[in-house]
Amino acid sequence: MAENSTDQFFKSTVLGHPSGLFVLFFTEMWERFSYYGMRALLVLFLTASLMDEGWGWPREHAMALFGSYVGLVYLSTMMGGYFADKIIGYRYAVLVGALLMTLGHASMAVETQWSIYLGLGLLVIGNGFFKPNMTSIISEMYKDRPQKKDGAYTIFYMGVNAGAFLGILLCGYLGEKVGWSLGFGLAGIFMLFGLIQFWLAQNIFGNIGLKPKKNDANSIEALDNDKRVPFTTWQLGLIILMVTLGLFWIINAPATTISEGKINIFSFLGDNGNNIAILTALGLFLLLLIYRFTQYSKITREKLIAVSFFALLSVFFWAIFEQSPGTLTIFARDYTDRTLDGSSAIIFRVVNAAMTIIPLAIITWVLYLLFKQTFAKYKWANIVLSLSFIIVWGIAIWMLLDQLKDEELEIPASWFSVLNSLFIITLAPLFSKWWESKYNPSANAKYGIGMLLLGLGMACVAFGAMGIEPGAKTASVSIIWLILVYLFHTMGELCISPVGLSYVSKLVPARMIAFMFGVWYLAVAIGMKGAGVFGENIDKVANENGISYFFWVLTIVSLVVAVFAIVMKPVIKKLMHGVR
Hints:
single chain; 75% helix; mainly alpha; two-stranded antiparallel ribbon
């Protein structure tokens, strides 16, 4: 059989897919467990009072640091993707990333100032190596079976959400109820399990993801006969300048906020130095993008403009959607009545137990199927994986029993973030049926619907918070509003998140895919940082006009973008040249 044929992977299957997919599934699951588990705790830890063993930071400082952290996580994927493509191969990139992230979580568990910053830095770089290269391995594995790719990504996406779900649930509970370092440490332990399991089972991928070889004449480059536009020296110089400004800004902006102006490398530009720096970088970026678009053939240019339009909408989407681990978690902690007693406490315990045990049982069953297929060849990988599951079951059962102890039950503030993953796992199949039916909306309509749902979610929390006086530091709003936010936001995410990447791959010429994915992730990173910038203003707005006003502003922004997306439909449809 030919060496490069992917049929070999389909000899050993689980649920009709190669066993190798499930090795990736569990590695990704533990990575997302650690990422979301830590993320759910970060803002809570930074803003918790010193009495509660937190750092007692103002919310503005915590949101500034958080925004830069999640922004950098997405920016680092460009660097990691480049290294893997050109130098070390996907497989080593995943291993290097997993190792750096394990060290990052361990560093965060120490809880001193330098160790938290060091930990965040290691997590950013590790994530850059890890995140883009997992999907690259899947893509290679299904090269000769494109019809099965959608199913594979769906299964993989379930792993992502199962990990996020369990991470927020268990790290969040331990961090809030027992001790921050235990929550941070648990995230690291499971990252280590994912790393060891991947290392021991890596031969299951055959030759995929080993060090890259130089391409031959029938590579993508040669098969693409569109006009070529290489980067010239001045363009590369401009890119280096923009990247430098952007990186300095994303690290310097929170440092300036947190040190109250003492640390500021842009101080020579005056009080608004940070804003001048980032606006200059964005301005140069837009000029370069527009100039490059003018150099392509008409059809290519128009398709690239369509992709850029969707990237712009994505900035707004993520800036509002990513309020979840920041302002919405703060809202849950300080302004929501999370204490339940009597029948409401019993209902919560039953629902929470079902939410914890059913997904865990399903994933354990998948683990058993993988075990049957691969134990003979990869017994140590399977033993490590089983051990990680025994620990997770132990913590889950301990958590459920711990909640039975008291008459009154307090829901952890981080618990609400779990709803996003839960709703995705439940609703994703319905949405994919909708996209495959004859009622499949156009790209613009999907964005419009997504932004509308986002606005509806923010309107729920804005409406629920209307009784809170300006300047109030606590309140007891019903939990129903937060549950509705996460329901609407998840439906919005299902309209936008998977759709964007698929349009990049459909509209962009093959040889430019990597560059446009870079532009796409840049848009996501700007959105993530934007979420932090919005969040930094929560206290100012809450003190002057009440916290409800803050959420109404985000509602209006969402609805304006939704209308803009739908109004632009005829223009964008023309630019897409028949791509649906």
